[in-house]
Amino acid sequence: MHQWITHAPEETMHFSERLAVFLKPGDVLTLSGDLGAGKTVFTKGLAKGLGIQEMVNSPTFTIVKEYQSGRLPLYHMDVYRISDEEDIGLEDYFDQDGVTVIEWAENIPSWLPDDRLSITIERVNERERTITCKASGSRSKHINEEISNDERASD
């Protein structure tokens, strides 16, 4: 488990933009944090790092938004309104050719793949956030180590 502190939304975006460099098809990232913690801000930075040109916003009411214009597709999910008992086929995205980001993943624990990078964003104050990355599985451990060793992620 690794942890970073960002001091502004732009720093959160910069961190996730750097993280995107290390992502490959099939990678799954889960995002947890209170409302307003910065999950969508994090995803915007990730999209930028993937070279995605479309405007990225929260898929709260559509559940899934797909972005195809980058070096890898991005599947952005918001499962705030979904429960673990519902099966609407979101796990079909996990084995595709892109990166899957799931906001509120704690609502669907039985659907999640074993190998994923779990990211928690906690509000320290109005602008500061603590970002904690916890890996489960060999691929996510590799990503976690790469971003931990990347000096530019903290710039």
From TrEMBL:
Pfam families membership: TsaE
Main location: cytoplasm
Keyword annotations: ATP-binding, Cytoplasm, Magnesium, Metal-binding, Nucleotide-binding, tRNA processing
Subcellular location, record wording: Cytoplasm
Residue numbers spanned by region Disordered: 135-155
Biased composition, class Basic and acidic residues, residue ranges: 142-155
Family indicated by similarity: Belongs to the TsaE family.
NCBIfam families the UniProt entry points to: T6A_YjeE (TIGR00150)
Listed PANTHER family: TRNA THREONYLCARBAMOYLADENOSINE BIOSYNTHESIS PROTEIN TSAE (PTHR33540)
Protein name: tRNA threonylcarbamoyladenosine biosynthesis protein TsaE
Organism: Sporolactobacillus shoreicorticis
Lineage: Bacteria, Bacillati, Bacillota, Bacilli, Bacillales
